[in-house]
Amino acid sequence: MTKQEKVLDITRTLERLYPETPVPLDHKDSYTLLIAVLLSAQCTDARVNQITPLLFARADNPKDMIKLRVDEIREIIKPCGLSPRKSKAIFDLSHILLNKHNGEVPDNFEDLEALPGVGHKTASVVMSQAFGVPAFPVDTHIHRLAYRWGLSTGKNVDKTEKDLKRLFPRELWNKLHLQIIFFGREYCPARGHVPEECPICSVHGRKSLRTKKGS
Predict the structure, then answer these.
(1) What is the C-alpha to C-alpha distance for residues 58 and 75, in angstroms, rounded to an integer?
(2) Predicted pLDDT of residue 155
(3) Binning pLDDT at 50, 70 and 90, where does residue 201 land?
(4) In the annotation, is 121 catalytic?
(5) Which is the catalytic residue, given 139, 159, 165, 175?
């Protein structure tokens, strides 16, 4: 089987399993999505979805957010981890949005990645899910699965993103990255993974994965 045949089969499997791809992080607009994605760093989506209603009840827009003190934000988001850094980033980026972008979340990578606490992965999520711009955000699930499926060398997330963008059609990126995340959580976890029982690894996984349990 060629790599392109493998890619096509993986795409079909993911589409069969996940025809719908709701955004895992609860939000109502680009600003609340940006904050939710920022909070999700080293934190589960489920935990973020428990915390954001408390934060957004106080401030769900930049103007209201800067009325809070950084320590107030930090206290609310503490369960998400890294609260000192995240709270300052939320406060500072809200100021920047008001001062430089008329209170709106910018719809381009350059301005997004210039915001405090916003890296390429966060910007990619916002661009794809808030603005519909083709992007391929690579999180730990996608990085792990791309390596297991032999689609990337796994050296770093930047390399994985470039490899996946080269292999998959641009029009599929936004949906596909969510499908891979959902698949990783349900069938292909980091621990306790049984390749022989995985719908994709059992067929397309690296040989070392298919010849022994676990990975």
Answers:
(1) 12
(2) 85
(3) very high
(4) yes
(5) 139
